[in-house]
């Protein structure tokens, strides 16, 4: 009797031998085939096996890739910056139904320019500072959803690079991304009857390997990347997909001149720009390619005019 597999209705089986191999830990639920603990244990195993198998990817599901932009409603936070504006230009060419740009910058002439590129696209602008309290982000989402009824894609692209501004760097580059995503979740979360959605977060190659002279910026981008990877793993629960866009050094005012942490390297910008870079146009074209791939959990590197899906190395597993 001891090693007879126990099969639950969710299709997971284990034997007591398998269970006995698990590490000793007071957090591991007591095995009681009849009780509530067994159900929790079973659901946890079931979820883990589902998540691990897919690894967050949509292999073989990219056939309708073009549809990730065409006829869709897209919110683009920071769609008027250096990388943002060229990407907005590429996005409108691909024919979304609505492109809602949220930015701290107000550039009415640029909104007109975007409308002129493709008059079939409704380009809307709302001023938005991502450091606003979460309740303000929620109010703005309510306004947008009231107008459009549904949104398919949220792009979070706000960023600053100035390691003299420690708290603001974290507030814009990380908390802003988390808050804006949190504010949209009630409209998308399948547990609330929502239809799901897609989040594309602009992180950075500095989240892979830091520019150590700007450790605050690099860490803020690593945090945004980690957050995005978790979002993608949560898809089976929320119905919301996520991937990260990680540009290499791209010629914008962001990298032209910036402060290192405690001035450890006063020439950091010049040193960085002595190496090959890419243009915002190159970055934007690959950005749109990545959006069209619509691949949950993808970690896209957009460097030197190339688009590459990065394979992340797992060094640890929570097993839950
Ligand atoms: N340029 C690069 O080499 C590079 C490399 C990797 C990642 N990135 C990231 O790409 C994104 C765009 O950077 P960029 O190079 O185009 O710089 P940029 O300075 O031209 O654009 C930054 C954008 O963020 C917006 N923004 C800044 N603070 C904001 C706030 N509080 N609220 C709302 N919006 C805010 C700006 O208005 C602007 O639209 C940033 O997240 C940046 O960190 C840039």
From TrEMBL:
<dbReference type="InterPro" id="IPR002347">
    <property type="entry name" value="SDR_fam"/>
</dbReference>
<protein>
    <recommendedName>
        <fullName>Alcohol dehydrogenase</fullName>
        <ecNumber>1.1.1.1</ecNumber>
    </recommendedName>
</protein>
<dbReference type="GO" id="GO:0006066">
    <property type="term" value="P:alcohol metabolic process"/>
</dbReference>
<comment type="similarity">
    <text>Belongs to the short-chain dehydrogenases/reductases (SDR) family.</text>
</comment>
<dbReference type="GO" id="GO:0005737">
    <property type="term" value="C:cytoplasm"/>
</dbReference>
<dbReference type="GO" id="GO:0004022">
    <property type="term" value="F:alcohol dehydrogenase (NAD+) activity"/>
</dbReference>
<dbReference type="Pfam" id="PF00106">
    <property type="entry name" value="adh_short"/>
</dbReference>
<comment type="subunit">
    <text>Homodimer.</text>
</comment>
<dbReference type="InterPro" id="IPR002425">
    <property type="entry name" value="ADH_Drosophila-type"/>
</dbReference>
<dbReference type="InterPro" id="IPR020904">
    <property type="entry name" value="Sc_DH/Rdtase_CS"/>
</dbReference>
<keyword id="KW-0560">Oxidoreductase</keyword>
<dbReference type="InterPro" id="IPR036291">
    <property type="entry name" value="NAD(P)-bd_dom_sf"/>
</dbReference>
<keyword id="KW-0520">NAD</keyword>
